[in-house]
Here is the input.
Amino acid sequence: MPPPSLYSIRMHATREGHHLSGAERLAPAWALEELAASLVRRALSHPRGEADVLRLTVEAVAAGEVLRGRLPDVTTVRVSDWRSGRYAARQLLLEAGISPVAADGVMASLAAGAAPGGVSMRGAMLVDAETGARLESDPARGVRASRMDIAPEAEAALRRELLRRGLDNPHVREALVLAAKVAAAPGIAAELCWSDDPDYTAGYVCTPARGYVRFPHLKPAGEERGGRAFFLRPGGDPEATVRFLERAVILFDEVGTFHPDRTPEE
Ligand code: WAQ
Ligand code: MG
Here is the structure.
């Protein structure tokens, strides 16, 4: 039997015009109803407040369009506070060829709230890895990666690995899938992320050489400003990158390697 055709299902919730929460999944038709209910529940129970507008988008994707991929390797760097976390994350960005001006500019934008008005963006900044210039056309929306998910068997394997490390939560699972799609996009040199949820202080840097490197602290507890930056290599074509991030359909059916925790000095 051919695999069932897939749908892209996306949720976006706002409160007083500001981004609250979003999610993107791929699922066969039979799973959509339950998934839609869980996304509605999630939008209404976000730690930053209850949504006043919530949109669900469901679109069929052609079976022939579905790409496959592997999740990145995972390492946790044990930092004790957000300052040492940001310092170590910056080192990793520099190692990946991001210029100091681009790395520092992005850190400052995320810390200040990268959308106009000093709030979190709905999507990510797209940043020139050399100059630090922001390339996204709408600085409130940014670039949204969507149309990606993890296949059910790989999800079960991933959850087993995460559970053993006390990491089996939706933040980590979704961030790994998102980072995997971003890493697969043409022209991407690195990604930096920290959460916008006030009670979730962790974040990560993902690079081709190191994979997904998590830092338990990249911001102080209680801070609502978070976000993502996708760094584009010099000579990269921003339009091709955005097209891939928004349109390509990719299902991750393999889990990466889990490395032992490190300290920032290692
Ligand atoms: N595409 C682009 N940017 C996005 C997307 C997307 N699909 N989804 C969220 N963002 C941006 C947006 O600006 C959010 O404000 C920001 O990322 C943070 O999103 O290993 O929870 O869902 O322990 O709050 C990372 C660490 C957690 C996980 C990330 O992000 C770990 C997290 P959140
Ligand atoms: Mg969030």
